[in-house]
Design a protein that fits this description.
With about 220 residues, the chain is of the alpha+beta class. It contains 7 helices and 7 strands; from the N terminus they run αααββββαβαβαβα. A hairpin with a 5-residue loop joins strand 2 and strand 3. The structure holds zinc ion.
Amino acid sequence: MDEIGENHIGTSAETPLRKDAFKLSDAEKIEKIEKNVYEIMQTLGLDLTDDSLKGTPKRVAKAYVNEIFGGLNPAKMPKASTFDNNYKYGEMLVEKNIIVYSTCEHHLLPIIGRAHVAYISNGKVIGLSKMNRIVEHFAKRPQVQERLTMQVVQAMQKALGTEDVACVIDAKHLCVNSRGIKDIESSTVTAEFGGKFKDKETKREFLDYIKLETPFN
Ligand SMILES: [Zn+2]
């Protein structure tokens, strides 16, 4: 298992959660994690009576439960309300450069990058910001990038009632950039193409769009 983690291989498209994952309330989880972070820092020999450090266990616990890993809770899945495609727009819609802040589940270190998401409507359209929120929801979990990419596509497919969804993520993994092999330049690209996006031309069109530069100055 250690080998699997070190090589960044995920085991499933589903986030491996236990059945009792939500037995504790968020407040109970924060309290428990605070104690655990305190233990880690204590073990490292840090003086937790120091003014700068004493609030850290609580801050970390709150950040884990409410923010960094907030997307573990399916109840927090953004409502992906869709609308009828009244203007009969029939081409693909691409939202590119969605910022991704996630966490590598093998080292609990940041993954930072950009997601590019596209779909072709079969009658329904979705609000643009909802696409950001779907990416954000699944990013806020301990992740492997392959799974994150697939989860975004599956959630969009479900919301829109079509297979024709694609996602490309290009991200830096701090576990690779800052430790281990310390390769600051490398980034990882993952892609998931559903339905029509498996066709060579449609895929090409999507990949060409995400190369467009959009300067605002
Ligand atoms: Zn890692």
